[in-house]
Amino acid sequence: MTDIDLRSRFLEGMSRAATFVAVATTDGEAGRFGVTISSLTSVSADGSQPSLLACIHHLSPAAPAILRNRAFCANILQEDQQQLADLFAGRAGAGDHLARFERADWMTGALGQPLLTGASARFECRVATSVLWETHHIIVGNVMDVHLSENPATLLYGQRAYRRAVQIAHHD
Ligand SMILES: Cc1cc2nc3c(=O)[nH]c(=O)nc-3n(C[C@H](O)[C@H](O)[C@H](O)COP(=O)(O)O)c2cc1C
After folding, report:
1. Does residue 157 have its Cβ closer than 6 Å to ligand 1?
2. Where does the pLDDT of residue 95 fall: very low under 50, low under 70, confident under 90, or very high at 90 and above?
3. CB of 57 within 8 A of CB of 136?
4. What is the pTM of this model?
5. Cβ neighbour number for residue 137 with a 10 Å cutoff
6. Is any ligand 1 atom within 6 A of the Cβ of residue 158?
7. Residue whose CA is closest, atom 18 of ligand 1?
8. Where are the domains of the chain?
């Protein structure tokens, strides 16, 4: 298999792994930045703090800002927040990160991080450690606070489209 074949089969294979969609936000001495990610993953509920990780491209200004601010918030989007997913992916013409923030409502968490109003779940984190693996920073966060919305319906992304989770009928 050529490298190009392997890469495209990898992308096609991963597109079948539907994931939830989050906007990782950060604020602090390095400034305010936010980026749409599907790489958010739970690491452990049973360490000294719960922990999660996110993989963010090294060329996204959000990655060095998170590392310098030493904190971020993972805002898991609700079903009706597709437009925000596109906005924070730079798809709506908002290359300027501060302009992205103007198109949504925010609260400030205990660590000073931007919490997105209406997000399904918001995890406020301190950066615990990070590794630059080739193109992406793998950033592990210690979860210091969790804010849950009343509506748990979470936006999904799979096979290159936004989706919603539907419960499969139970057959005996
Ligand atoms: C559904 C979805 C999931 C994404 N997941 C990631 C991700 O996990 N990590 C990442 O670095 N970029 C991810 N991206 C791409 C970034 O959002 C996008 O490249 C970035 O916001 C470009 O703007 P920036 O370079 O100004 O941050 C994703 C985009 C979409 C639409």
Report:
1. yes
2. low
3. yes
4. 0.95
5. 19
6. no
7. 89
8. 20-164
